[in-house]
Amino acid sequence: MGLALAKWESTTYLFVAATTTAATLVSLHFRKPSHLWPWLCILAAFILFICTGALQAEFHTLGNLSATRSLVPDAIALPGYIILAFGLMGFSRGKIRSGEQISILLDGCIAALALASLAYALVEPVLSKHQMAAAVRLVFVAYPSMSICLVVMTLRIVFSVDGKRFPAFWLCVSAMLAMFVGDTIYMVADLNLLHIPAQLLDLPYGIALLGAGAAAVHPSMRELTERSATKHFTASAGRTALIAGGLLVSAANTGLLAFPPAGFPIYDSIVLLVLSLLLTGAVVLRLIQAMHVAARSENRLAFQANHDSLTGLPNRRMVEQHLSKQLERRTVDDTHVAVLFLDLDRFKLVNDSLGHNQGDQLLIEVSQRLQASLRPDDLVSRMGGDEFMVLLEHVVTTSEAVNLAERLRASLLDPFILNGVTFYISGSVGLAFASGDDPTATAEALVRNADTAMYQAKEAGRDSVVVFDDSMREQVFERVQLERDLRRAVSSGQLRVHYQPIVDLPHGRAIGVEALVRWQHPTRGLLYPSQFIPLAEDIGAIGAIGTWVLETVVDQWADWKLQTDTINDMYVSVNLSSSQLRDDTIVTRVAELLKANRLAGSSLCLELTESLAMQDPILSAELLGRLRRLGIGVALDDFGAEYSSLSHLRRLPASMLKIDKSFVDSLSYEDTADASLIAAVVAMARSLGITTVAEGVESSFQAARLVSLRVDAVQGYFYSRPVTPDRLIDTVESLGARTLRPGSAPIG
After folding, report:
1. pLDDT in tens, 24-33
2. What are phi and psi of 184, to 5 degrees?
3. pTM to 2 decimals?
4. Residue ending a domain, choose from 197, 214, 230
5. Measured between alpha carbons, how far is residue 154 from residues 86, 88, 99 in Å?
């Protein structure tokens, strides 16, 4: 490296070296990069360079062109460059593909060999006068050649990484550039071509040492060894210029060897020939490697054009092309082709509640499970989002295709476990079938028909297989029309709220009401939640509907409080949608809504289904706890309909438990196991201080059974159907709401 220390006691440089080394070690200890060895290699290389400077001063090598010149300092310095290059390549291991690492090494070698050839031609006239050995001449040109190799390698590593380039990157580049400048100046001074003070010769090396040390202590030093995205190979002006420059230098060497000047030594010709051959070989290897990478990049682009980037499955374009070929062959050999269109049920809830990363991982797991369930000749593709299409070849009958579709549907029923979290998901499957005697079937029509059948499976309750028939087209058209109308329902003022009283047992007095949304469709009349809420969830309109209902109900309840004392001790219950549950601001918005309407928290109860709460129990518990601290009631709706686990009651801070209608229906019979289940639920709820409400009570017999089971309250047609706002007060009064005692509301 040629640090021209005038004296070994050059305290300034030694102080910089010692403090930089110590700071680097301390930084490595505290910052703990993922890979330590690249930094240790760089540190070891600079220690060798410091030792080299001391030995050069000891042996007085600067400007010594005699035969007595010692090569001991060079024997220590030159391995330092190799160690330094090894350390720099360590920065690329987590960031760059192995093919790109080879190209980085080749680019560095091309730059080094090209500069070595030029430098050797420069120093030869000077050293030939002093009868210097060829080894000494090579040592002279080795320093700037190896440092330019390091500069090129560092720049290649920096510009091969996508995204932000951190300060530690640029500090490394500055250190390598300073080394190259120092080695070039030192070679010129060593050849006695220019007199440069020793202090100026030391300066670039000091800057290089400080640059490397600053990179090591900067907070971004960890990024040098962390894995990150890399750029795909593309031809660049810099790389093209490097290869072209290498070829030009090689050509110049060839010309010099072909027409050497008079008295040109034979061993110099041999050295230049070897350098030229090495340079040409490096350029040829680089071109071969570039062509290989370009071919691989072309193959990758072709793969990406026909495959899904997330799952690696064929995409819509590829499978439709394959389907067209199969349909053409079908008319020749009279084979049958079936297309399955599978859509994951309620996948949006998973994606929105647990994040897109979990959702993407779930899609990958689903794709793998579908592939494992297919026959070798069948083709599964991802159409986008949570939709998959399967092409079934060589099916004989529709029933055979249905059996394969059922097998795919059933493969999704086993739970998915991702990062310790268990997911349950189902799929709705549409099937379209093309026989060999139907020459009119096209790929576009078959895919459209399968998609239509899939929507019918959704309408039928999800998690089912539906075979397409011509009558479905009108139904799908109606669904599309309904979807378009629903998107305008809120802004057009078409939504309505009806109220159903909740009464206590055994007296039958109204203690609260549940708000139930209705849609006054301009042509279809009054639609119930079951007719449009699932569609709202599918198209993402549920959040706007939920917000409208909450704001409308709270405003209306506040107005009634001012107009009558009938509802003073009552509460109004509003259903929370999945979108609202995932809204980080829901608690703040509810609190502001209550404050703006001057309502106590006990005036409001928010309901969510047990299944919705258990999608993310931790998040649900945290959200419900914040609502309870505001005095707001929290009800678990449809309890027992899906999970039926009493242990959930201990985890969720609910104030009310609404027993699902399916349990109440069974009470119409004398001997039923559901009565024991209800008794157990009531006992557990009472021990936790939770009120129980039974839904769907339609007869006096059911009401009497619920009284005997010690259920706290009920709601259902036996007491009152949902009523419009203008009839609510009269309905409540008819149930004896005026006799309620203060504080008798079950929540709050």
Report:
1. 888 888 888 8
2. -65, -45
3. 0.50
4. 230
5. 11, 7, 16
